[in-house]
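Dear colleagues,

As part of the handover before I leave the project, I'm documenting each prediction I ran so the next person doesn't have to rerun anything. This entry is a single chain, and its sequence is reproduced below.
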Amino acid sequence: MNPRLTRQELLRRGAAGTALLAFPSLLAACGGGGDGESTGELKDVLEFENWPYYMDTKGKTHPTLDQFKAETGITVNYYEGIDGNDTYFAKIQGPLSQGNGIGRDIIVATDNSQFPGLYISEEYVQKLDKSLIPNMDNLIDAQQSPVFDPNRDYSLPWLTGMDGIAWNEELTGGPVTSITQLFTDPKLKGKVTILEEMSDTVGLVLLDNGDDPTNVTDEAFDRAISTIEAAQESGQILKPTSQNYAPALLRGDFAASIAWSGDVAQLALENPKLKWAIPDKGGIIWTDNMLIPLGGSVPTASTLMNFYYDPKISAQVALGTSYGSSVKGVKEAALAIDPDAASNELVFPTDEMLAQLYPNDPAMVSNADYITTWQAVLGR
């Protein structure tokens, strides 16, 4: 069974939290909720900011968010305002650094960037209320103890994706199978984009150069930067892009790009000429994580996290986005929804695909000198 807390139970806990806030001595005796249950009132509306192409969609609605409201009475205002880890951090850092909220209860950050760890170390986010997330038991073993949050006190995975190459066969005349081809094929000159996220682009270039993205040396990093700069100077690369690459790729504004797996799977529903693949030398794997920023409602956010850690719910999101889930039992739940679900290799990568995927070196993505160098490459 995957427990769903009833509206009555949630309100009871929220009322208890309000009572604690009214009696500071009792709150102090209970440790302020730091070791489990949170204080504060359960809200009727939750504000959730995420990346585009990252929620199951039917027409103009999100079915699982509708289900969440039906079960809990909580309305979710869902925003697709994150287009880059660094740009979003820059947008919200000011108020968070002053101890203020940002009008959001849940935000998302990627583990192959410095930002999940930065949000936590700077105390810009709040602890989860694990007493409201019994479904946290469904978190897969591989995601139990990330470097940035070893006890999962502050974060839970949302979805997992891969970095690879996307191309429009109508414009390329065939597949683009390597970063070398992407950066040097004369047929693609001026028709290529790279992602602004250092970990995505540099990670793939490290692999193409024969270097290890899981243990990056200064020499390897410098080689990757030189490779990228050469492609820029030759005119091969049109420009670096953020999340806005997706609609531009769909329109045919460029022919090929470093791209995220699930995005292209969704775009291909509108244009079957769009393809995505792991490069010959390998791809990068990453996971986005939900966090509760300062000012967010911990009980309300924890309630939504619990809902999405039901395998039946997570399976709907995974199949609807073509991104992978960190929830145990998702494959079985997906097969119950769609008997052909197992053939979606972006949601359920084969062993052969997994052998080609690498995480980024945490030391690389948090290296201040590397970040400064990368910002110069982007022209910032």
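Residues 9-20+34-160+286-347 form a domain with the D-Maltodextrin-Binding Protein; domain 2 fold (CATH 3.40.190.10). The chain has two domains: 9-20+34-160+286-347, 163-285+353-377.

All the best with the project,
I.
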